[in-house]
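tl;dr need the bound structure. longer version: we got a ligand (calcium ion) that a collaborator sent over and nobodys looked at where it sits. i said id run it. heres the input, straight from their email, havent touched it
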Amino acid sequence: MLALNETHDVNLTSWVTSANNKNSDFPIQNLPFAIFRRKGSGESFRAGVAIGNQVLDLAAVSHTSIASGLSSEALETCCDETLNRFMGLGLEHWSSLRSALSKALRTGAPEEAELSGCLVAMDEVEYRLPCQIGDYTDFYTSIHHATSVGSLFRPDNPLLPNYKWVPIGYHGRASSIDVSGQNFHRPCGQTKAPDADAPSFGPCKRLDYELEMGIFIGPGNAPGEPIALDQADQHVFGLCLFNDWSARDIQAWEYQPLGPFLSKSFASTVSPWIVTLEALVPYLTSFERPASDPQPLPYLDSRKNRQQGSIDIQLSAHLLSRQMEQAGDSPAKLSQSSFRHSYWTINQMVAHHTVNGCNLRPGDLFGSGTQSGPDPEEAGSLLELSGGGKKPLTLPNGETRTFLEDGDTVIFTGWCEKAGHARIGFGEVQATVLPAQADLSARADIGE
Ligand code: CA
């Protein structure tokens, strides 16, 4: 069972002293997982845990004497180049390893002598995707995002009638998901202006980001065996930051009747660190459905889900233009929101996804959908912040944006904070837009 335990104690400190800084994303109460190696080395990738400004090399830890039993079985899988086997083990194993690491990393722990040789400085590592992502499903759980985007695409009918009944999602493309630092070319495709007779081909002119949470699945379910709502959290390994890049002009032309296709499948970026659901227990919060809205159908409703189905995670989006980067400016903040505003919970997403018998597998990824808050300034995309491209945003250096320009870097951060509990951070996810591939652009010119 997921519950508060001694690993969450706010008074715990670590002999890795950088973890004791109050602003650190990675105190001893967090212990998130990534796949890493020393930057530019020929080493094998393996699992690591973040502690302060260090990465604890779990492959190295597996050769020490700190673990036994379940945590030792868990450590054995951490020598793999992906977390899939570890994710498939389940909560008992994850929890046992978390407890062993928490004890061994504490101030005064006798394991310090053995583990201090297993640390690698975080600024000396490189990451790759934490797991092989078999399937990726993108949900649409922010009613504020769905309503404001719906009003841009369909002014007379912004929120479709199924929205308040069904955790809407579509099956996305897993092959083009990469880890933070992913740089991708501006996509080309078909677009059609509302007043044009026919579509044209060329580079996307309305490139956007989507501020989302990524949800990694742990143990799966057998085909035909749905996961019940109150068991769903046993099937969730953890959460990361997720940018679901979107080509709005391509999307507007292609999305009906079957939903987004090439407007979303060219790139999506995850943060390297996955924060486990267990680390987030102090931040579980009530799920509230307005009394005037339809209440969830029985398979999507339970006391547990209403009491602690939501998670209060602060999310923020920043932009660094090429001009800002060259001038040495800091990234400009575009917006901030919280995952607690989500209209559907993670457990509802899992229960709904499997209710038809669909099987999930370890390492599958859910996108939460763009997490826009109730206020317009809390929007999680440029589409919303610029009113559909009609109201340009002015950056601190005077540049303006309706959508993304070549050379723009988008950076998301996420964190949980409240009195009486340790800050739990997600680090960051960032990626940069490169110009459209020259040969494709040239082909577009000939076409015109
Ligand atoms: Ca999305």
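gonna send this back to them w/ a short note. DSSP finds twelve helices and 26 strands in the chain.
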